[in-house]
Amino acid sequence: MEPSFFERVYRVVRHIPRGRVASYGQIAALLGQPRAARTVGWALSSLTPQQAAEVPWQRVINHAGRISISRVDLSAEVQRSLLEEEGVRFDETGHVDWRRFRWAGLEWYEIEELWGEGGTTGEEENVERKTPNA
Fold it and tell me: Which residues make Cβ contacts (< 8 Å) with residue 78, sequence separation at least 6?
């Protein structure tokens, strides 16, 4: 049985390496649903505290390169702090430079592998190494 859309979001987001960010729309497009950016946001907003500790939710920002989270327990300040600890930098207006920090994403075959055998492929570490450092 194929995982739910929310679970698919979590599996992809787990592959975003430290120091990189992706947009809600980028995650949706990787999942074959390019118009589902808002649903990606809902998925991340519905993380339980345990899931939030396992899924790097802070690495997903809006298409403008800004933080746009709306949870009391996972605030914009927390998100920014976590990203800054990973080396992501914000300009004076609170924007992230996409050219410098955008995650390259996954190849189609890597996405398909996520849906097999519980969604873990062992590729998480390889994906991080394949993404060039800024």
Answer: 58
In the chain, at which residue ranges do the beta strands (DSSP E only) sit?
Answer: 22-23, 60-61
Residue 54's domain comprises 5-124
Residue 42: in which H helix or E strand, if any?
Answer: helix 37-45
129 assigned to some structural domain: no
**How many domains does the chain contain in total?**
1
**How confident is the model over 2-23, as pLDDT tens digits?**
889 999 999 999 999 999 999 9
pTM, to two decimals: 0.83
Contact call for residues 44 and 61 (beta carbons, < 8 A): no
Q: What is the largest CA-CA distance in the chain?
A: 46
The answer to whether residue 20 is domain-embedded is yes
Q: What is the CATH number of the domain that holds 61?
A: 1.10.10.10
Spell out a b/e string for 20-46, using b for 16 or more CB atoms within 10 Å of the CB, else e. Answer: bbbbbbbbbbbbebeebbebbbebbee
